């Protein structure tokens, strides 16, 4: 057996690497949310921010490649673990009651898979732009890509608002368990701090979800206009 | 008291099983859950029916063999007890109670409610021991152990190997059991020389037996009759990382060194 295979046959190794990749994704999700909050500073701010990113193609494509790799590693390893876990309990209980395991913790594979579907949709929609082809691929008055216009157009449509709100709820569930879980996976525990680690998970999830929802609803409720 | 029991019956490892409903009456509230099953079995024997096979030994909460999932919770509704320490007064009169075996691929059913938990023994054989030379007994107090370490090791060592953690875990993971054993031995000076090899070997054995992986869901801790803390799982992960950083090689995939032939 190859060394790589031996390494990843260990469930603990797989979890450690998956959590590292997951942490990279968490970092991105926070960065992405903070960056997008610049819509509240107006068209000029967010379009400028986007064009700065685009003016650094090496940075942009390195980041994209890194994210793709992290997502690939994370999804590959966690789904492999999830399949193994399913096999480990081949016959289900007739009666089943959970005392401690949270809904978020028990649905990681489900929320993860839905998240993957949402991310693909989101990329096709706002990055590649094939979902809503009638959207004008507009430039603003300074000849930059009009990200502001894209966002406003997307979230003026109740259909997209619905899809993105559901996407955020799924992201919130996944993140809330994921972030507190990382401490345990890395062996970081302390009688006095374990409670705090749990709160960090909910806190990060809440922050990201509320930040993103703020943008969606600001447009939908007409606070941000074209 | 009167109860309706839905009990999993399965004639053998490769037979199809299913639930059979029994009613029991004249149950004393002071009977333990196992005594209630004894009474049922007496009646079945008297009518020349096959009694319900269930595992038990000490009947005082220390051997860990009374493995029953009662209404969806291993060892039933009380916390910090085994099935033999569960009393019928805990249930509402005339209730229907569902009784199932531990369900895990790594714990194949032998008969009815009895499962084969030797997978846990094989994990122990892979590393759950210390190697010492025999000879004259060492004088007491030659090896001083701090109060904190002693307490931590005792908390981990209170695991009785019942497998409730596996039964409760959505992933049928044995992490809490393995964590208890690894932490117990890694905390004590006698266990330190082999600690890097031990954690590698025991985790490898755990994965080999077909248990699931830990999802940090903590259902195990909530059903453990000995309140073994999930903090030991963090300790196991730490031991594993430490072992990886020190470059411990994965043990060869041969038979465990202390393996017996089954
Ligand atoms: C924005 C995207 C994502 C982020 C930020 C993220 C983050 C994380 C983190 C930090 C963990 C915790 C690892 C640990 O237990 O220590 C985790 C677990 C998990 N993730 Fe994700 N993830 C994302 C997307 C996905 C996707 C797309 C999938 C699957 C298709 C997925 C499936 C899982 C599963 C199944 C677990 C549980 C692993 C286990 O406990 O064994 N995740 N995620
Ligand atoms: S950790 Fe608790 S539940 Fe698991 S085998 Fe040990 S005593 Fe039983
Ligand atoms: S019979 Fe020994 S612990 Fe229950």
Outline the secondary-structure elements.
The complex is a heterodimer of chains A (226) and B (262).
Chain A: H1 3-9, H2 11-36, H3 43-54, H4 57-88, H5 103-106, H6 108-128, H7 147-155, H8 158-185, H9 194-220
Helix pairs in contact in A: 2-4, 2-8, 2-9, 4-6, 6-8, 8-9
Chain B: E1 3-9, E2 18-24, H1 33-46, E3 69-70, E4 73-74, E5 96-100, E6 109-111, E7 114-115, H2 118-127, H3 147-157, H4 164-168, H5 175-187, H6 195-208, H7 219-223, H8 231-245
Parallel strand pairs in B: 1-5
Antiparallel strand pairs in B: 1-2, 3-4, 3-5, 6-7
Bound molecules: protoporphyrin IX containing FE (HEM), iron/sulfur cluster (SF4) and FE2/S2 (inorganic) cluster (FES).
Which CATH class of the largest domain in chain B? Answer: Mainly Alpha
Envelope shape of chain A: globular
Radius of gyration of chain A: 20 Å
Overall pLDDT metric of chain A: 94
Determine the structural class of chain B based on helices, strands and strand pairing: alpha+beta
Biggest protein-protein contact in the assembly: A-B, 43 and 48 residues
CATH architecture of the largest domain in chain B: Orthogonal Bundle
| N-to-C order of helices and strands of chain B | EEHEEEEEHHHHHHH
Overall geometry of chain B comes to elongated
Low-pLDDT parts of chain B are none
Beta strand count of chain A: 0
Write the CATH architecture name of chain A: Up-down Bundle
Task: Give the distance, in angstroms, between the N- and C-terminal Cα atoms of chain A.
Answer: 59 Å
Largest sheet geometry of chain B: 5 strands, mixed
Number of structural units classed as domains of chain B? 2
Any idea how many domains of chain A?
A: 1
CATH class of chain A: Mainly Alpha
Mean pLDDT of chain B: 94
């Amino acid at each position: 057996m190859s060394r790589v295979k031996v390494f990843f046959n260990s469930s603990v190794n797989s979890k450690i690497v998956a959590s590292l990749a997951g942490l990279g994704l968490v970092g991105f999700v926070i960065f992405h949310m903070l960056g997008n909050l610049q819509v509240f500073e107006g068209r000029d701010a967010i379009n400028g921010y986007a064009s700065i990113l685009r003016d650094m193609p090496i940075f942009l494509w390195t980041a994209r490649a890194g994210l793709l790799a992290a997502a690939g590693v994370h999804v590959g390893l966690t789904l492999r673990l999830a399949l193994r876990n399913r096999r480990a309990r081949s016959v289900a209980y007739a009666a089943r009651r959970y005392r401690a395991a949270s809904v978020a913790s028990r649905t990681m594979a489900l929320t993860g898979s839905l998240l993957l579907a949402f991310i693909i949709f989101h990329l096709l929609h706002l990055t590649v732009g094939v979902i809503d082809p009638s959207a004008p691929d507009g430039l603003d008055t300074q000849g930059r890509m009009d990200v502001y216009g894209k966002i406003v157009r997307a979230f003026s449509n109740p259909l997209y608002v619905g899809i993105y709100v559901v996407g955020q709820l799924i992201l919130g569930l996944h993140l809330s368990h994921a972030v507190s879980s990382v401490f345990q996976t890395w062996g970081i525990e302390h009688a006095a701090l374990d409670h705090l680690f749990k709160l960090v998970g909910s806190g990060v999830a809440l922050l990201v979800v509320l930040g993103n929802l703020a943008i969606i609803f600001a447009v939908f409720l007409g606070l941000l206009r074209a | 008291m009167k109860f309706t029991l839905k009990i999993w019956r399965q004639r053998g490892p490769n037979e199809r099983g299913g639930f059979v409903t029994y009613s029991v009456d004249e149950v004393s509230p002071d009977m333990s859950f196992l005594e209630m099953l004894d009474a049922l079995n007496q009646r079945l024997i008297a009518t020349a029916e096959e009694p319900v096979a269930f595992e038990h030994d000490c009947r005082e909460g220390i051997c860990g063999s009374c493995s029953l999932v009662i209404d969806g919770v291993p060892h039933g509704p009380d916390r910090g007890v085994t099935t033999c320490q569960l009393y019928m007064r805990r249930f509402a009169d005339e209730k229907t109670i569902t009784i199932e075996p531990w369900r895990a691929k790594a714990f194949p059913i032998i008969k009815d409610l009895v499962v084969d938990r030797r997978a846990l023994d094989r994990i122990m054989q892979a590393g759950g021991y210390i190697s010492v030379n025999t000879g004259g007994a060492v004088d007491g107090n030659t090896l001083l152990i701090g109060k904190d370490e002693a307490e931590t090791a005792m908390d981990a060592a209170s695991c009785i190997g019942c497998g409730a953690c596996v039964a409760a875990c959505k992933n049928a993971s044995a992490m809490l059991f393995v964590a208890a054993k690894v932490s117990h031995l890694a905390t004590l000076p006698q266990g330190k020389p082999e600690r890097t090899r031990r954690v590698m070997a025991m985790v490898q054995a755990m994965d080999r037996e077909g248990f699931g992986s830990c999802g940090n869901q903590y259902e195990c801790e909530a059903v453990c009759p000995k309140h073994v803390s999930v903090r030991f799982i963090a300790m196991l992960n730490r031991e594993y990382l430490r072992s990886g950083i020190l470059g411990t090689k994965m043990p060869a995939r041969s038979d465990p060194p202390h393996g017996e032939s089954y």
